[in-house]
Inverse folding.
């Protein structure tokens, strides 16, 4: 390495110049700018009910042992997952983002191909690039369904391929039979991102028993209401688990978050209430005919706001006290969409009022 008189020159080009994850705008800033005491926060797909009381209770109990390192194997969490889902192999991570990052670390050498069904969640591509992977983005069809032959032909050359269902930001649910067709035709790993699957009527878990190249990523951030705790997990084939554990940072999760996750998994009432509430409001959003709203299997909907751009529509909502997500930053998506999630009653009502004025 050449000596340098600028410390920043030590940084990889990727992080000096490259793109990074785009976060939703800060509600506090919008409230201040436009004079609202409270802003409807519909940009980040969080659970509007607050944390489950059982999650809070477990987290509180865990506080007294925060001077100890966590249980390395997260036995209590793995048992809670097995109780909730059945006898599968699980790995954990700091959010599903952490799981995605570690899976890529297990598999990708510089120059290896990673296939991504786009437009979608941006973190797969960012994590792959960080590892030296080469992204192959396969565009979805005009209705955001998967172009199966194109996806398969790219995924055949990839060590790992990412497919999000229900898809962020379009909400599109990919039928189980399509997933199965892909799995039958590729050798590499298919990472199915199921961050929102609880809000849909599709259930892909049975595929774990039939395919040794499937990983299903899940998160505690959405229906389970623990976005701030950063807990993600995945169903993995048995052979993959020890490899993952070698590549992961030691301990993966902190004690408090892991305990909260156990409580959240056991609180079936909270989960069921969230799901039925979200579905009711998602229907209300979808029936609004002001602009085309896409059918969604998630806790959000994507709306075509043309002739406005995503940012113009987002600014209009912000001026009216509603925070929505502009989809401008989603690679492969034309710039005239926004994404809106179901929030508290008053937030949804305010959103619908503003939507009717757009
Ligand atoms: C929210 C989200 C995740 C993961 O979120 P974490 O908070 O990191 O668990 C993963 N994929 C998609 C598509 C998401 O929207």
């Amino acid at each position: 390495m050449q000596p340098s008189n600028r410390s920043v020159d030590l940084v990889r080009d990727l992080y000096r110049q490259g793109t990074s994850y785009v976060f939703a705008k800060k509600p506090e800033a919008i409230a201040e700018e436009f004079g609202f005491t409270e802003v409807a926060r519909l940009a980040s797909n969080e659970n509007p009910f607050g944390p489950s009381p059982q999650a809070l209770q477990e987290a509180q109990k865990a506080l007294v042992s925060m001077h100890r390192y966590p249980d390395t194997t997260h036995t209590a969490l793995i048992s809670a997952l097995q109780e909730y889902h059945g006898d599968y192999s699980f790995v954990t991570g700091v959010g599903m983002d952490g799981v995605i990052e570690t899976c890529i670390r297990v598999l990708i050498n510089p120059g290896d191909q990673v296939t991504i069904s786009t437009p979608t969640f941006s973190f797969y591509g960012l994590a792959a690039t960080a590892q030296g992977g080469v992204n192959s983005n396969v565009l979805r069809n005009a209705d955001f369904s998967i172009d199966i032959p194109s996806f398969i032909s790219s995924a055949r050359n990839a060590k790992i391929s990412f497919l999000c269902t229900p898809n962020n930001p379009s909400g599109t649910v990919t039928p189980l039979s399509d997933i199965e067709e892909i799995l039958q035709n590729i050798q590499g790993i298919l990472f199915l991102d199921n961050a929102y699957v609880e809000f849909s009527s599709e259930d892909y878990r049975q595929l774990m028993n039939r395919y040794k190249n499937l990983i299903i990523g899940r998160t505690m951030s959405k229906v389970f209401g623990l976005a701030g705790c950063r807990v993600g997990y995945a169903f993995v084939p048995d052979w993959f688990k020890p490899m993952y554990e070698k590549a992961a940072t030691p301990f993966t999760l902190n004690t408090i978050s892991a305990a909260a996750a156990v409580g959240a998994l056991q609180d079936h009432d909270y989960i069921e209430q969230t799901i039925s509430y979200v579905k009711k409001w998602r229907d209300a959003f979808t029936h609004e005919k002001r602009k085309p709203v896409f059918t969604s299997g998630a806790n959000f909907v994507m709306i075509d706001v043309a002739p406005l751009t995503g940012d113009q529509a987002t600014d209009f909502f912000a001026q009216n006290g509603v925070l929505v997500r502009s989809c401008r930053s989603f690679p492969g998506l034309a710039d005239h969409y926004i994404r809106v999630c179901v929030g508290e009653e008053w937030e949804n009502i305010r959103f619908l009022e503003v939507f009717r004025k757009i």
User: Anything to note?
Assistant: The radius of gyration is 21 Å.
